[in-house]
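Structure ticket #2291
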Amino acid sequence: MAEELDIKELEQVVVRFSGDSGDGMQLAGNIFSTVSATVGNSISTFPDYPADIRAPQGSLTGVSGFQVHIGAGQVFTPGDQCDVLVAMNAAALKTQYKYAKPQATIIIDTDSFQQSDLDKAQFQTTDYLGEMGIDPDRVIQCPITQMVKDALADSGMDNKAMLKCRNMFALGLVCWLFSRDLNLVFNFLKEKFAKKPGVAEANIKVIQAGYDYGHNTHSSATNVYRIESKVKTPGRYMDITGNKATAYGFIAAAEKAGLKLYLGSYPITPATDVLHELSKHKSLGVTTVQCEDEIAGCASSVGASFAGALAVTSTSGPGICLKSEAMNLAVIMELPLVVLDVQRGGPATGLPTKSEQTDLLQVLFGRNGESPMPVLAATSPTDCFDAAYQASKIALEHMTPVVLLTDAYVANGSGAFRLPDINKLDTITPPYVPEELKGTWTPYMRKKDGTRYWAIPGREGFEHILGGLEKDDKTGAISTAPDNHDLMTRKRQAKIDNIAVPDLEVIGDVDDAELLIVGFGGTYGHLRAAMEEMRAQGKKVAQAHFKYINPLPKNTAEVLKKYPKVVVAEQNMGQLAAFLRMKVDGFVPAQFNQVKGQPFVVNELVASFTSILNK
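Resolution: structure written out below.
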């Protein structure tokens, strides 16, 4: 009988699953992160997969990865490098080892390191560990493929079906390494494969085999680890992706406003999951339409908004280009609409499965004419819920289209999400035209804050026509009068400028920082981690992060001018920095810009920011 090992507690750990696109690495990573969130750990995940529909098996370009950072306390990033690397084949080891810490534990399937596999991965010798400078004592070399076949020998499954379970063996081994409760994993699989109980049972059997392999061989070489939860706020938690959180935010906003939710969309990576998720919730009053193209998706949403729904259209950067005409229609008609832009690498088709922040100036200014539109940017996968809710609130209460920016990193990544109480969410009160205005109301009559009243078709006495031609401020009739156009342009701009958004918050060394780190959207976690690391080194550093970009928070200039040095860090060539220079007189920040399609690396941020601080 194997001797009992000590269980050591860790504060945090990073695990990276990697293999062929068909090896189920995303599923294995998702299950492990879900189980971790369920027990109260803080998590941050990063799915990293190729754009190929299916690259050649065993090829270097076809490797798919999923990285998860698990912490007892709050974690802000998926981690720069992993503590445990699962490499299901030679190509995965070759391409993913660079993401492993020098002391990382590596789990490999030795059955996938045959000569043909090594040739595809461009190894020069059969001593692949020596060729890469990897200490064999840190490698758990397991014949995973053969052990899966042995575990399922009497299952009646064919060879191809059995091989699809290899990811579950690796997951079982990782669950043993970190003392995870297998019952939580089993329940996940039973629910996921409820209509295919045979598949669920096979996967459960293989996970148990992987767990037992670790237990019986003491594969960790030294210890089993546990990461205890230090969750401060009691409640129900779930592992949620940014796209799913965004969908839930829209549903919650519609319910709070007492409206039907309509999504007009055209499938595009990495935004399609929002369409998929919302299509599951017809019982909650959600209507989804997969249109023939991007402009149709947006135009149909404009029509749904005119009819009185909370209207949303979803896309990525290329789709924003195509939707811009219909977005502008919503601007001049002053109708509520939320435009979700899940940013990806560009230009053109670019890097469909990778992440950038390169659409900012496009959503701010990428339409003809003076076309003001509020812009929000979600800061994390779990913040996508609040960002979607707030974008909907602004659209409905101020009768304007709103752009919500996320990105592939935030949308596909996940975090531990505390389920909110809808009764405690902000109220949403659309500006319906009051009955007492019947007989005197015209389409562009406004409230005191400049917001146009909303008349839903079907209300007797409030029949009206809206369209893309400029209208007379008083009558709503078509007008080309110069002074009227100038007036309407200024009113549309003033309406956006007057939207109340929260002040820009500063964290860290608020009063005496020598360097202020500024960013927006999904880079929050990496910039926060860099700030914390620099403060731990004794440096005076603070952070200000933009979620509301148009209009800017009222205290923006005050904050940016308070500190002797400011660096604006973003995953583009300097778009936020340019916008802030435009809006804040005399503001000339340092800049940190990368456009790699990958998240920032915290160590690189710290080195760059330290250099700026020391100049």
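Closing remark: The two ends are 62 Å apart (CA to CA).
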